[in-house]
Specification:
The protein has 2 domains: 209 residues, 3-Layer(aba) Sandwich (D-Maltodextrin-Binding Protein, domain 2); 201 residues, D-Maltodextrin-Binding Protein, domain 2 (3-Layer(aba) Sandwich), CATH 3.40.190.10. It is of the alpha+beta class. The protein is globular. The strands form 4 sheets. Strands 2-1-3-13-6-14 form a 6-stranded mixed beta sheet. Strands 8-11-7-12 form a 4-stranded mixed beta sheet. Helices cover 40% and strands 15% of the residues. The chain starts with a helix and ends with a helix. This is Bicyclomycin resistance protein. It comes from Microbacterium barkeri. Keywords: Signal. Pfam families: SBP_bac_1 (PF01547).
Length: 425
């Protein structure tokens, strides 16, 4: 049964266009009295083997409530909204945290407050990122999984440089990275990061972490009024900070062509010991760890143990407003939130309580230590300028300085001028 359902998930995931025949209102009791639910998730099928196993366990233990796991990738909240508005769609939906606000409509998602009151979740008061799922005092979803960017490093490379602990501040981090490169006569890059100009380039995360740790924000909402949350001088200083890695040779110029935190060039440099430190989310770390024939470890990012200095990504769970069996769907969500699910599903729970119940690989301890202090990009959501637009703007302007096409003052001014225009609508 497990193999058959996994192959079904793989088949569904490769469809570019999928036509759904309404399964929410159709999820009813058959003549045998069995309630059948559909749970849709959007991560690639090759990343959810553990989730398949968890759902199989639920089905084995709950013969009267059977769940069909449906994988539809990539994420498409608009598709689910169309289905729900027409009275169809899956019973339980897997959502990006950032998509909950878009889907928070009575005809799309079922408000969960009554269910949470009658059947409270264990550790509900320790859920992370509830600011993304509770909107205007109504709960539209529950945070389920969480991730962040942690520092990834070669312990032996740091030890060879005489460093016995990862740096805790951005200022110390820069000095340690430079010392590693200098001490190796340039053979080792102290810091490797994807510094491309493209919108998805991973430098976006480090830039925001640096700003947030210094109480600076690209935009902020003050009393309902959106405005820039960083001055021109402060932003120019942040650009100079990252540019210094290239100026000193601590980070190779080739990194300016990369966008992915797990680019093969970074994995190769970790493998051969020519890169000491970088950063990645958990899934990317596991992939690279399998590729590298050397010990890798994680630690919190510089400032990562300071509340609000790093981002919290992740997924939420919701119930289709059209589900014929919301109570059964909620019981299944309670199971998905439990440590039983995360015993096989290789994601981190968006629950500080459940995090403490997991047997975590020591190499991933940096993620676990940092997650309770991380916050979502909620501070940017709802602004007239989108987060994607900010990301593209910042990456382009920072990279223009790295390549010598601009200077930090000009780039900072360009960023703030564009933000001001975007916030004016």
């Amino acid at each position: 049964m497990k193999t058959q359902r996994y192959l079904s998930a793989v088949a569904a995931s490769v469809l570019a266009i999928v036509v759904f025949s309404g399964c929410s209102s159709g999820a009813a009791e058959d003549e045998d009295g069995v309630v059948r639910l559909t749970f849709r998730q959007f991560d690639p099928a090759d990343q959810v083997e553990g989730l398949v196993e968890a759902v199989d366990s639920w089905n084995a233990d709950h013969p009267d409530i059977q769940v069909d796991l449906e994988t539809v990738t990539p994420n498409n909240p608009q598709q689910f909204a169309r289905e729900a508005n027409s009275g169809s769609g899956p019973d339980v939906i897997h959502m990006a945290l950032a998509d909950v606000a878009f889907l928070a409509q009575p005809r799309v998602l079922l408000p969960l407050d009554d269910l949470m009151s009658s059947e409270p979740l264990d550790g509900a008061d320790q859920l992370l990122a509830t600011e993304m799922t509770v909107i205007d005092d109504t709960t539209w979803g529950v945070p389920w999984t969480a991730d962040t960017m942690a520092l990834v490093y070669r312990p032996d490379v740091l030890a060879d440089a005489g460093i016995d602990a990862t740096p805790e501040t951005w200022e110390d981090f820069q000095q340690v990275a430079e010392d590693i490169t200098t001490g190796s006569d340039g053979a080792v890059s102290g810091f490797c990061f994807a510094a491309g100009a493209q919108q998805p380039a991973a430098q976006w995360f480090a830039i925001n972490y640096y700003l947030w740790n210094h109480d600076q924000y690209l935009i902020e909402n003050e009393g309902g009024q959106w405005q820039a949350g960083v001055s021109e001088d402060e932003l120019a200083a942040a650009i100079d900070y990252f540019d210094a890695f290239f100026e000193s040779g601590t980070t190779p110029a080739s990194m300016q062509a990369l966008t992915d935190y797990a680019d093969p060039a970074i994995a190769t440099a970790l493998q051969d010991g020519t890169c000491a430190m970088t950063y990645m989310p958990p899934a990317a770390f596991r992939t690279v760890e399998e590729q590298v024939d050397a010990e890798l470890a994680t630690a919190p990012m510089p400032g990562g143990l300071v509340d609000g200095s790093t981002h919290l990504g992740g997924r939420a769970l919701g119930i289709n407003a059209n589900s014929a069996h919301p109570e059964e769907a909620w019981a299944f969500i309670e199971y998905l939130m439990s440590s039983d699910t995360f015993a096989t599903y290789s994601q981190y729970p968006a629950s500080a309580q459940t995090l403490t119940e997991l047997d975590v690989d020591p190499a991933e301890q940096g993620f676990v230590d940092q997650l309770p202090h991380s916050v979502p990009f909620a501070k940017y959501i709802g602004a007239p300028i989108t987060t994607a637009s900010l990301q593209e703007l910042v990456n382009q302007q920072f990279s223009a300085v790295y390549s010598g096409q601009s200077d930090s003052e000009t780039a900072a001014r360009a960023i703030l001028d564009t933000i001001e225009q975007g916030l004016q609508g």
